[in-house]
Amino acid sequence: MSTAHRPTWDPAQARDVKGGSRQFSVRDMAAHTKLKFRQPGQTSVGDVARRDLRAELLIAEEEARNKKRKAEGKPPLLVTGGGNGTGAQDEESSKRRKLLEEAEKENGDADEESEEEEEDDDDDTDELLRELEKIKRERAEEKARVDREQSSSQAAAREAEIATSNPLLNLAAALGQSSGVNTTVPGTFSVKRRWDDDVIFKNQAMNQKEKSGHFVNDLLRTEFHKKFMAKFIK
Predict the structure, then answer these.
(1) Could you give the CA distance from residue 79 to residue 105 in angstroms, rounded to a whole number?
(2) What is the pLDDT of residues 22-37, one digit of tens each?
(3) Which of 7, 81, 85, 95 could form a disulfide with 90 if both were Cys (CB 3.0 to 4.6 A apart)?
(4) 3-state secondary structure 26-93
């Protein structure tokens, strides 16, 4: 019976470390020990308190309404002071009116610039199209010229072949009587010479005897035994 599952009476003891163990996991270290605060420009409490959110909302609504009217072809609306007619409201309405006028002016300048850019783009496109047409026309003319030259050269070669290929129509060239005529071309009566007509050693393998390559499993009937008996015994 095994006693591996039972604890020992005297378990292994670790060495005593002076001051205790200093090993610890990185997950046990302190993290995020400093509190972060919003910096200026990150919608902190002071930034939000200094902004007039109501005025910004009204201006945004009026700009959206004027953009819609402009898209429909209607003139933009001007903001007038309403309500109780107090000085603060009049000042606020005048500010909004100025903002709207500046926005309309910027939109008009942007539209004029976009129209000028579109006109310049149209001019550049027309010029590029004209240049492309010119290049296409030049390439077509070059291709037609090359085709004409090839067709003329092919026609001349065909006429020369027709005039010289038939030996019955060109007997002088066929018999080799005219100077400068190659008699080895097709259409002549002469026979083309073989490449081995002028060699010195020709048909050297005609008288060679064929070697018998069969194997005889008998010492008295082998070729060596027959030659030996014919040479020394007979």
Answers:
(1) 16
(2) 677 888 888 888 988 8
(3) 81
(4) HHHCCCCCCCCCCCCCCCCHHHHHHCCHHHHHHHHHHHHHHHHHHHCCCCCCCCCCCCCCCHHHHHHH
Confidence of residue 181 (pLDDT cuts 50, 70, 90): very low
Q: For 127-148, write each residue's pLDDT tens digit.
A: 889 899 999 999 999 999 999 9
What residues contact 69, with CB distance under 8 A and at least 6 apart?
75, 76, 77
pLDDT of amino acid 147: 93
Q: Alpha-carbon distance 234 to 231, whole Å? A: 7
User: Tokens 């590029």 correspond to what residue?
Assistant: 128
Average pLDDT, rounded, for the chain: 75
- Contact present, 62 and 79 (Cβ < 8 Å): yes
**CA gyration radius for the chain?**
56
Whether 188 and 173 have beta carbons less than 8 Å apart is answered as: yes
CA dist 219 and 225 (Å) reads 7
Q: Which long-range contacts (CB under 8 A, 24 or more apart) does 50-56 make?
A: 55/92, 55/95, 55/96
